[in-house]
Design goal:
Shape: elongated
Order of helices and strands: HEEHHHHHHHHHHHEHEEHE
Largest sheet: 4 strands, antiparallel
Strand content: 5-15%
Number of helices: 14
Strand order of the largest sheet: 4-5-3-6
């Protein structure tokens, strides 16, 4: 009963939001992408960069007089006025002038469900405005003053802020990644946030930024790999990359994480001109990706050996007797000689390769051997 009501409210909210933004022509319905010809898209982009530039100049000017806190006070008053005006306008539009009211009233929908859906729509539209007008200047303040807004306003630890940021991402990915992954990710995010606060109180192990980049990248890769192997994430870019992977993209999770992290670092370099920090961050990201590949995919790569010989039976028996490895016969055709041939395929460990080569060459010096890496082999005698 409750589940059916929630589904109705969700569907109504989607209808209301689509109705609210369809006249803005923000999305291209044919290509299912953002419509770059829309004037509202360009207005949003211009507002974003104007706020970025003005807030940076204002904060730096106030910092020179040690009055950076004044920026927060003035900007909070400005945001309050903006949100108050928008709340009144949006409320009137949603509850009285919405085009979908006449159509919705013909359906068997209870007034409570309609009211809740309208309220969620209202909150969603206010959050969009908050993202445009609040996130950019306040994030700029946090970066320039080396502290987060939540920590400054409420003295909330950084780990707690990490949890708060991950909540909407976890909710959004619930239906895509499934219950198990999200629950594991909640646990991973909580543990990760806890250790952020614990380690933040400890003295730095080194003041050398280069060493910190190297070892930070290595340990981050190890930790991330262990978490991903447990079918979980610690939230943030890991969770976003796992979500993107569900769209059948032929790209490794480590590569996705590196792309997202690199994009964030690149944006920081472009905005704040911190080229040196960006270069150190690049070292950490590359090392993290490489170590993550090793943890997730393993270092003990097996070998796949193909043998073309006239003495397949004898070679196969000796490989099975002396090395305890099985072989599989695959029928193929040699196009050069236009003859059917039996090709032996054998999966073996790296330590077995030299022994197999000796067996093959001892029985048939004219044998043709192909040895290639096998990223992962599962089954008896392997993992």
């Amino acid at each position: 009963m409750i589940k059916s009501k929630l589904i109705i409210i969700k569907d109504l909210t989607i209808i209301f939001l689509k109705d609210s933004y369809q006249d803005l022509n923000i999305f291209d319905k044919k290509n299912k992408n953002i419509n770059m010809k829309s004037i509202y898209v360009w207005m949003s982009i211009i507002i974003f960069f104007v706020l970025l530039y003005l807030s940076q100049k204002a904060i730096k000017a106030l910092m020179s007089y040690n009055q950076e806190n004044l920026f927060l006070n003035v900007y909070m008053i400005f945001l309050t006025i903006i949100f108050a005006i928008q709340t009144v306008l949006v409320c009137v539009n949603i509850f009285y002038f919405s085009k979908d009211l006449e159509m919705i009233l013909h359906f068997p929908i209870k007034p409570v469900e309609l009211l809740v859906a309208k309220l969620i729509t209202l909150e969603s539209k206010l959050y969009i405005t908050e993202i445009i007008f609040a996130i950019v200047p306040l994030t700029m303040y946090g970066i320039l003053t080396s502290q987060t807004i939540l920590y400054y306003l409420f003295k909330i630890p950084l780990g707690t802020i990490n949890i708060i940021i991950n909540i909407p991402i976890l909710i959004f990915t619930f239906y895509r990644l499934g219950k198990t992954v999200v629950i594991n990710s909640i646990i991973g995010s909580l543990v990760y946030s806890l250790f952020i606060d614990i380690l933040d109180k400890l003295p730095a192990f080194t003041n050398d930024v280069f060493l910190a980049s190297i070892y930070g990248g290595i340990f981050l890769g190890i930790g991330t790999g262990i978490v991903l192997n447990a079918n979980a994430t610690t939230g943030g870019t890991e969770l976003v990359s796992s979500l993107i992977k569900t769209y059948n993209l032929n790209i490794k999770t480590s590569s996705l994480i590196m792309i997202i992290d690199s994009s964030i670092v690149l944006l920081n370099v472009l905005v704040f001109k911190e080229i040196e920090i960006g270069l150190y961050s690049a070292i950490a990201i590359i090392l993290m990706g490489k170590v993550l590949d090793i943890i997730v995919e393993g270092t003990n790569f097996s070998k796949l050996i193909f043998i073309i010989s006239k003495k397949n039976d004898k070679i196969s028996k000796e490989i099975g007797s002396y090395i305890k490895r099985g072989t599989t016969g695959i029928y193929g055709k040699g196009m050069f000689e236009d003859k059917d041939r039996l090709v032996l395929m054998c999966a073996a460990g790296r330590g077995d390769v030299l022994k197999i080569k000796h067996i093959v060459q001892a029985n048939d010096k004219e044998a043709f051997i192909i040895i290639t890496n096998a990223r992962e082999v599962l089954g008896k005698g392997f993992k």
